[in-house]
Structures are given as structure tokens and as C-alpha cells.
Amino acid sequence: MRGTLTMSTLPKIAWIGLGIMGSPMSENLIKAGYSVTGFTLEQDKLERLAAAGGTAAGSIAEAVKDADVVITMVPASPQVEAISYGPEGILENARQGALIIDMSSITPQTSVDLAKNAKEKGIRVIDAPVSGGEAGAIEAVLSIMVGGEQADFDEALPILEALGKVIVLCGPHGSGQTVKAANQLIVAVNIQACAEAVVFLEKSGVNLQAALDVLNGGLAGSTVLTRKKDNFLNRDFKPGFRIDLHHKDMGIVTDAARNVGAALPVGAVVAQLVASLRAQGDGGLDHSALLRAVERLSGAQV
Fold first, then answer.
1. Which residue among the candidates 45, 180, 228, 229 is catalytic per the annotation?
2. CB-based contact 137:104 (threshold 8 Å)
3. What does the pLDDT look like over 30-64, one tens digit per residue?
4. CA angle, corner 290, sides to 280 and 231, nearest 5?
5. pLDDT tens across 4-27, in order?
């Protein structure tokens, strides 16, 4: 039982990657009583971790050397490979028997390869990407989709329960990433549909606030609309999840679907709309900024 555990009996955690998601997630582990040593490239994020009660490390090697569990949360496959491999990477510096929980959203194959290479070093890996965005990270209500061995999942579960609400083992290594890719497909198509509805409603002279409230109470309602309604209403595109990252994820899902022979006709169109928004300089905005693309197509100057 969590209440009877002390910090000394809980596993020691190293956290690599303290961005929009990683910072609040690592802080939730500190609040749950875990000892967290972190490393990231931005000094202000290290200072934030220290202020929250964590320990800032000067390198990956320093962060992971005494850790029982290493959690990684970086943007994409190249960053996962950069922090995992090489003389300064996790695999060369983590202790034998350590468990890596990679919470980044990457290609399923990168996860499979990491697990295989780690096994040769006596290190275990699960892939555990998340859905829920910045708000979900802050509130510790993320959905966490996991790929890996049952025993490793069972060991990681108390840690994951401090970060999320729905936590499911989806299959072997890479399965978490496959489910995350499907999640990103659904989210992007949903945001695009909402954005088209917003432009249609506004051009029709309807009260947008009232319209979105009633739509969200019926079959058209969704977590996406609940989370992004205010973004649409206020044209507030401060990033909770950047277009740049959703562009990366749409590349993962379209490539993975092609490899298994699954057709994604609507997903392919939305992937191109995300790519076009990025090409127009909006890559740093929240993915709800798909609204800007629909507005441009509808004749607005944005």
C-alpha cells in the first residue's frame, strides 16, 4: 500500500526530458513520494524540477546511474535513440536490471529495437506513450498505452498510476506506440471536423458558444471538443500539443498503416492539412490551430 511506503523503499527514478509533458509528470511523481533525478537540455526546466523537490543532474549518465527506473519523455524517435545509445546514453550507464519506461511517442519499430538492444545489457523496457495533452499531464489523468512484458508492466503500474487514469497493456513491445498512433489519427481527424464546424457555424451567424455547448452534449460531443472548445472560441493556440509534433505523429501512423496494409483515406487528407499548416509557419501552435487552415481555405486572412 502506498501509504506505508517511504521514499527509501520506493524505486529511485531518473527522468529524461522535461518539456511541456515531462515537467508536470515528473512533479506528480515527486508529489506521490518518489525520489526523482532529472536531466534535460534546458537549464530553467532543471531549476523547475529542483524547486519541486527533485534533483537536477548534469548529464544522462549522472541521472541514470543509481536509478531503479528510467523514464524518458522526448519528442521523437531520433531523440529516443540519441539519449539511449552511445557512451553517454542510458544503456551504457544504467545499472543491470533497471527498467526503462519510454513515454515518448515514436515509431513502433524504434520501441522494438530499443527493447532488443536493452535486453542485451540486462535492462528491461516498456513503451508507454500517453494521451491527454498538457492538461492531462498536469491533472495526472493521462491515458497510458503500454507495450512490453506483463511482469515489467506490473512493476511499472504503481508509477504509472501516479501519472494517469487509464493504463492498459496493449501487447508486446511496440504495441503502445501502435495504439498511440491510432490515438493521434482519431484526434487529428476529430479536431479537423470540429474546426470545419466552427467555420461553418460562424459564417452562418450562429452563436458559437451556444452551438458548441449543445453539440458537445450530443453524439458529436467528444473529449477533443471539451478540451479544445475554448481554443476555438478565443482563437487561443498556445501550445498544449504542437502542430510540429502532430505532424510527426501523422507521419508515424500513415507509414505504419502502409506497412500493415491498412487504408487511411481521411487520415491521409488530414495528415496533409497538418503538413500544410506547418509549412505556413504555424508548427509551433497548438493542434487546435487546424482551425486557421480551414479559415484560410474559407477566404479569411489569418
1. 180
2. no
3. 999 999 999 999 999 999 999 999 999 999 999 99
4. 120
5. 555 569 999 999 999 999 999 999
pTM: 0.92
* Dihedral sign from CA coordinates of 150, 245, 231, 276: negative
Longest pairwise C-alpha distance within the chain: 64
Other beta carbons within 10 Å of 55: 18
Stretches in the chain below the pLDDT threshold 70: 1-8
Q: What is the DSSP letter of 104?
A: S
180 in active site: yes
Distance between CA atoms of residues 82 and 89, nearest Å = 7
- From CA 184, how far away is CA 198, in angstroms rounded? 21
DSSP 75-129: SSHHHHHHHHSSTTSHHHHSPTT-EEEE-S---HHHHHHHHHHHHTTT-EEEE--
Cell of 189: 481527424
Q: Which three cell numbers stand for residue 5?
A: 511506503
